[in-house]
Amino acid sequence: MSVPVEGGCACGEVRYRLTSDPLFVHCCHCLNCQRQTGSAFVINLLIETERVELLAADPHPVDAPRDDGSKQRIFRCPTCQVAVFSEYGRPELRFVRGGTLDQPSRVTPDVHIFTKSKLNWITLPDSVPAFEVYYDTKALWPAASLERLEAILAPADSDA
What we know:
Elements: E1 5-8, E2 15-18, E3 24-28, H1 31-37, E4 42-48, E5 52-56, E6 60-65, E7 71-76, E8 83-87, E9 93-97, E10 111-113, H2 137-140, H3 143-153
Parallel strand pairs: 3-10
Antiparallel strand pairs: 1-2, 2-5, 3-4, 4-9, 6-7, 7-8, 8-9
């Protein structure tokens, strides 16, 4: 994928631009994602929040329950209610919904996760790693993405 990449909701009120390539791309087959999208899986582009530039209208945050009792913050267009991106407890990191890209075919998954709940009629490609639950980020992510992730997760330096 080459940047910049733009996307938005169905009605066009929410528009965004990714200012860099994503850290990593998940194809998630978990039951939560199936339920929330009404589909068999979701494609999420993991990227730093600061690299998601809002071009029009702020999406509205909605806290949705997950099967494990935690909450997932889903950012939806206030008009058409399309989910544009999600946050899983880390406001520094966005999970941009691949289907909201202007050209969703420009992105392919780096990994398939939670395949234990994958629908049985879906065939996964042998060329993409797949995991019944999750995976070891350090073993799978490119070094540059790991450096970027470390930079956003590191505690802020103090002036003292």
